[in-house]
Amino acid sequence: MFLKRAAALTAAFLMIIHLCGCGAEKEQESMVFAMDTVMTMRLYGGDEELMKSLESRIKELEGLFSVTDEGSEIYELNHTGSAELSDDTMDLVARGLELCRTTGGALDLTVYPIVRAWGFTTGEYRVPNEDELRELLKTCDHEKINISGSMVSIDEGMELDLGAVAKGYTADVLTAMVKEAGVKSALLDLGGNISLIGEKPGGGSWGVGVRDPFSEENIGVLRLSDCMAVTSGSYERNFEQNGRVYHHIIDPDTGMPADSGLASVTIIGEEGTLCDGLSTALFVMGLEDGLDLWRRMDDFEAVFVTDEGEIFITEGLEGSFDSEHSYEVCRR
Ligand code: ADP
Ligand code: MG
């Protein structure tokens, strides 16, 4: 049942279209269940050994980053208050914290106790009361994470969760391995964190469908190559109580599910960790603040879908987005 839910989640946001391979390279596919989702890797080229090494690297990273696995470095940090981190975990924590600062705390790696209070970690959903949230918010502050060399420590009650950036980081690591092995065309779909390596077999850009948050259809198709695409949305993991829908992306200022007027955000860029972190953060920030950040940075593009179903794309995607719907192009 777990797997079924995860498979449904994976299908949720971004979909690869026109997968027909017409290149001469050997095609290999692998599916791995890790990081609470289904990961699909398709290589056009490379050998079985490469695929095996990608699979074991995923498992290795999961074993380091997991909040629930008793042997993980993050588990140790959360349960003892300090831990010595391996290079991988330190890389991700450092990059994640940089993104926390860049986004003014819309991304906050210490939001885990609040996510748990809502039941998103177990599926036993509940709405925490105001007092409870007020108490939990005291433990939520990415600036209170202490790093000294390879040691990280946190205050009592604080807990770290890399869930908003871990799949993006994993995509970066695997993409580098695939490229290093000389594979010219590959597709990695790590639970909706998509890495498009090179062009599709036979040439030309890949088609990535952006799902309509309000139906099973796509709102449009992005024509992309050699980049990452990641979506965060409110309709993926949520529950309903007394006629209100509560979803899994938390506004670290309020402890409540983010209510910024957006139904989904898709980020396109070269770095998976950045795309993953920003898709979560811009979902919290909303359209206006998200566009302000985009204007200040030059390493990503975005597709926003509002609660009203309006579509906005940043100008770098002009010409790469096919849609039957009307949409607005945002300028720098
Ligand atoms: P998903 O992992 O579902 O693809 P995201 O990348 O947007 O989606 O990450 C959401 C996960 O990150 C949540 O399940 C939760 O564990 C955690 N999270 C929720 N809100 C925040 C936030 N504001 N900052 C950092 N992590 C968050
Ligand atoms: Mg994310």
Would you give an account of this structure?
By secondary structure, the chain is of the alpha+beta class. The protein has one domain (14-330): T-fold (Roll). It has helices at 2-10, 48-65, 73-80, 87-102, 112-117, 130-137, 166-180, 272-285, 287-296, and strands spanning 14-17, 27-34, 37-44, 82-84, 146-148, 151-153, 185-190, 193-197, 206-211, 218-224, 227-233, 238-241, 244-247, 262-269, 300-306, 311-314, 321-322, 328-330. β15 and β16 form a beta hairpin. The chain is globular and about 60 Å long. Residues 1-11 have low confidence and may be disordered. The structure holds adenosine-5'-diphosphate and magnesium ion.
Set out the fold topology:
Blueprint: H1 2-10, E1 14-17, E2 27-34, E3 37-44, H2 48-65, H3 73-80, E4 82-84, H4 87-102, H5 112-117, H6 130-137, E5 146-148, E6 151-153, H7 166-180, E7 185-190, E8 193-197, E9 206-211, E10 218-224, E11 227-233, E12 238-241, E13 244-247, E14 262-269, H8 272-285, H9 287-296, E15 300-306, E16 311-314, E17 321-322, E18 328-330
Parallel strand pairs: 16-18
Antiparallel strand pairs: 1-9, 2-3, 3-7, 4-6, 5-6, 7-8, 8-11, 9-10, 10-17, 11-14, 12-13, 14-15, 15-16
Helix pairs in contact: 2-7, 4-8, 7-8, 8-9
The structure holds adenosine-5'-diphosphate and magnesium ion.
